[in-house]
Known about the structure:
Layout: E1 4-10, H1 17-27, E2 34-40, E3 56-59, H2 68-86, E4 92-95, H3 101-110, E5 114-118, H4 122-125, H5 128-137, E6 145-148, H6 151-160, E7 168-170, H7 177-183, E8 196-201, H8 206-209, H9 211-223, E9 228-233, H10 239-248, E10 255-259, H11 265-270, E11 273-276, H12 285-292, E12 297-299, E13 315-317, H13 322-335, H14 345-360
Parallel strand pairs: 1-2, 1-4, 2-3, 4-5, 5-6, 6-7, 8-9, 8-11, 9-10, 11-12, 12-13
Helix pairs in contact: 9-13
Amino acid sequence: xxxxxxxxxxxxxxxxxxxxxxxxxxxxxxxxxxxxxxxxxxxxxxxxxxxxxxxxxxxxxxxxxxxxxxxxxxxxxxxxxxxxxxxxxxxxxxxxxxxxxxxxxxxxxxxxxxxxxxxxxxxxxxxxxxxxxxxxxxxxxxxxxxxxxxxxxxxxxxxxxxxxxxxxxxxxxxxxxxxxxxxxxxxxxxxxxxxxxxxxxxxxxxxxxxxxxxxxxxxxxxxxxxxxxxxxxxxxxxxxxxxxxxxxxxxxxxxxxxxxxxxxxxxxxxxxxxxxxxxxxxxxxxxxxxxxxxxxxxxxxxxxxxxxxxxxxxxxxxxxxxxxxxxxxxxxxxxxxxxxxxxxxxxxxxxxxxxxxxxxxxxx
Length: 364
């Protein structure tokens, strides 16, 4: 049987949620059926070594020259050269980095069975007009499929672009259950002792993650005589701001900024709670990781897919308002009787594979 040809477009493969999700998707493709090409704007990043060996990786350079005319000419020539070689040569093409205009353009060139992956809940980031502008710049009407990683993001999109509803589908990110369990056994130097440990995993950017809410929460729990500790895993543009806030509140013994970790799972394994205090969120991969490691989730975002719903099954939804958030978490610590639901994520992965293959094989 002749293999079908798939092509994916992304920015780079540094450590991040989208990049990790792409790696897991690539690992869940049946390479007996498909030949896969991955196009990167920057062929770099710690996760490059995780790409399956049979995937053909191509670098597609984007000029950022300050001379506008020169930049446009170079990018036009690169796009023309790529188009002549790859136009309609694939059975499926995917712009995996939602925000990438070059990826969006090239995906539609490579096949008529084109797809856009939507990883975030952009309705929280933009006004309605900005939201439409964002997707219109990607020429959203010309994609055959639009995949969302959370139902909430898909529902809002369908209300905004009702004419495209039949092209949308929710497929939550793939996750390697055995790998996470194995990596969680790795030894780390930090220990929580007898304290209640909160672990945050994510990019340190206040706009979306609102880590100041978490820092203020820890201060509140401290003043209420709770024996608590918080580990913050990740890095980002607002790390310095958080360091200064922690210092000003004299919370250095209670909050540890640990930085980016290629293996965050031993830290999550020690946690009593995974906590996210985001302003907006897709369905983060770290939700699934916490579920695999049997850790309850405390989060400001009630995002779901077809299989996972946080409240009453895997954790707690709390308010985004600081005062209410503080009191709700204190109440959880005082009265936690949650019994975590068991779920077969390996079986769910198989269902996701079936959905993806239906899209790969779609006739247009």
